[in-house]
Design goal:
The chain is mainly α. The chain has one domain. It is built from eleven helices and no strands. The N and C termini lie far apart (57 Å). The relative contact order is 0.10.
Length: 231
């Protein structure tokens, strides 16, 4: 008996697509992503160490030595706070993107997993930077990680929005363009800082503050985010 023909343009449903609805799978992707971000934020604190081997004849002197030791470690604490807000910012970007992404395929999942890889390694990157913050290699390592993460997010958004492949058809094209253009700011800041680091490591670290300030300055005086119901 001849096999039945399938009209051109008809989507062939398989046992796999029937068993795992796209909406359910998207929820699992988001849950996994949230877990990795939470884990990375928790691991960041391991870059901080409690001062040890302190001794003194009385509590007053010990307190003074403890204060001196903590004061000596303030760069590590500052790096921890900066990295915490940076990872939080990446999570917010992911949240905004997936508020509009409604479908997925293997490539989209792969790009998302690449982002999770970059986020998961950030505690190690921070620990390296906190230990060797005055070295060129540590600064470039930290900046390159953030730049690559930002560019991977751009790849995700470009892939998802191409011909509205995985986003809702009603997505405002101005919002789509806004996310693309604003998303280039943070990786650009860190890429510029890599070049600056070869001249001055300290100046390169100061440049990183621009990853928080510039997007807001641009939004206020340049790019305007279209009105949206997404928080």
């Amino acid at each position: 008996m001849a096999e039945p023909t399938v009209p051109r343009g008809t989507r062939v449903r398989s046992a796999y697509t029937d068993r795992i609805p796209p909406g359910e799978d998207l929820s699992r992707i988001i849950s996994l992503t949230d877990g990795v971000f939470a884990f990375a934020l928790t691991l960041l604190v391991l870059s901080l160490t409690v001062p040890t081997a302190l001794s003194a004849p009385n509590a007053a002197i010990l307190s003074g030595r403890l204060g001196a030791a903590l004061n000596k470690d303030w760069p590590s604490f500052l790096a921890y706070v900066f990295a915490f807000f940076l990872i939080t910012n990446w999570w917010m970007v992911h949240h905004r993107f997936f508020s509009h992404i409604k479908r997925y395929d293997g490539t989209l999942v792969g790009i998302n997993m690449a982002i999770l890889l970059e986020v998961a390694v950030m505690p190690f990157v921070l620990s390296t930077f906190a230990t060797y913050s005055d070295t060129l290699v540590a600064v470039v390592f930290f900046a390159a990680t953030q730049a690559i993460t930002g560019m991977t997010f751009q790849v995700l958004w470009q892939y998802a929005t191409y011909h509205h492949r995985f986003v809702e058809e009603s997505l405002d094209p101005h919002l789509e363009k806004y996310y693309k253009e604003r998303g280039l700011v943070t990786p650009a800041v860190f890429l510029v800082s890599i070049g600056v680091a070869f001249v001055s490591v300290g100046a390169a670290e100061v440049c990183w503050i621009g990853s928080f300030i510039l997007p807001r300055v641009i939004q206020r005086f340049g790019l305007r985010e279209p009105a949206t119901d997404v928080p």
